[in-house]
Design a protein that fits this description.
Number of helices: 3
Largest sheet: none
Strand content: under 5%
Order of helices and strands: HHH
CATH superfamily of one domain: Flagellar protein flit
Main location: cytoplasm
Mean pLDDT: 89
CATH class of one domain: Mainly Alpha
Structural class: mainly alpha
CATH topology of one domain: Methane Monooxygenase Hydroxylase, Chain G, domain 1
InterPro entries: FliT (IPR008622)
Keywords: Bacterial flagellum biogenesis, Cell projection, Chaperone, Cilium, Cytoplasm, Flagellum
Radius of gyration: 23 Å
Number of strands: 0
Low-confidence stretches: none
CATH architecture of one domain: Up-down Bundle
Pfam families: FliT (PF05400)
Oligomer: single chain
Subcellular location: Cytoplasm, Cytosol
Shape: rod-shaped
Helix content: over 70%
Length: 121
């Protein structure tokens, strides 16, 4: 997502709203990838998401918004945060799953070593 230009929208406030809409679209893609367990694509998308949030922090608050624009921004931000929460929950579940797999692999390795050590005697 490119940093909004004052030429992309009629006003700087509209450009900011447009930026939030782009951030929501990226967040929606990330949520879909998390639901589909497409972890590689999620990591790539999340890298760009972090860059976009950094860009947003540089332009946020430069211009006052109307009540309607602020309400739209708040709505977009709420949806982004809801999606972020679900993505995080799915990532935690994946981390726990990987931790269990690592634990199982370690136990199998230890049993294998013990078994082979006992057979060598």
């Amino acid at each position: 997502m490119q940093e909004p230009s004052r030429h992309d929208a009629t006003t700087p406030q509209e450009a900011l709203i447009s930026f939030y809409e782009g951030l929501l679209a990226r967040s929606t893609r990330m949520l879909t990838q998390a639901r589909e367990e497409d972890w590689d694509a999620l990591i790539e998308e999340e890298s760009q998401y972090v860059i976009d949030v950094e860009r947003l922090s540089r332009i946020e608050g430069q211009d006052a918004m109307s009540q309607e624009q602020q309400a739209r921004k708040d709505s977009l931000l709420e949806r982004i945060l809801e999606q972020d929460m679900e993505i995080r929950q799915r990532l935690i579940a994946r981390r726990d799953e990987l931790g269990q797999m690592i634990g199982t692999t370690r136990r199998q390795r230890d049993l294998h070593r013990t078994y082979h050590a006992a057979n060598r005697r």
